[in-house]
Amino acid sequence: MEEALELSTYLPQSFANNREQAYLDFLWSAFQTNYEADRFEFASLAFHLLYMSFVSFSIWQIRLAMPDQFRMAMVGFRSDEEGSLMDCESPFKFYDRLKESQIFRFLKLIGCTNHQVGEFAKFVKRRNKIAHPTGTVFFNDRAAIDAEIADMMKEVRNIETHMEPVIVELYRRFLIASADMEERQYTDPADEIAANLIHANYMSAADLDICAGFDISALAAEAHHDEMQALHAKLVELYPPEEMEEAA
Predict the structure, then answer these.
(1) Per-domain boundaries in the chain
(2) Which percentage of the chain shows pLDDT scores above 70?
(3) Which letter does DSSP use for residue 71 in this model?
């Protein structure tokens, strides 16, 4: 259970609307309730949906940071699919246009190999077996589901590692766009970070850890660098890197 709860570190801290938040809350409740009641088959289904939600949020961030490459990755899709994927207003809408297994192909844009993509997608096949009446219970005990969760969390961490350049790019864009206090939405740095970094980009705690480790000196030549430093200092104050927390 403890390793499963770690997944929350990789899920957004803020959602586009209350329905998305309610959906994730429902999945967590379904997972925990069934896990604690030893209904491991149903717990695994809920956890799989949480895993696929994490994947969809990652693909959303890739689309934000790499729109041109994202378009190129759609070569081979039908023309109507290409347009609809770029126009999706929510990460959850990707699955209205694509099969679950197809969504993983976009992870190649962050350097994942075909083998890695296959490892990420293998859980879809397992879930499909569980979701159909086979007369077989795949997860009969706590050890079995815990092993599955450990396997899935390994791939979550792998994806997040590959996502680092994407998160850095989104953060860099945020700092540049929000540097001018006369132009940005909120004067208060904390409010600006909450609205236009975390909320706008579906940032997770793990993503913010990457942002907190950003080398702000890399933007020294940009206008309003002092305000960028102030924004970064506020982010580090609010979301200190894990290394700093451990050292403390």
Answers:
(1) 2-162, 166-247
(2) 88
(3) H
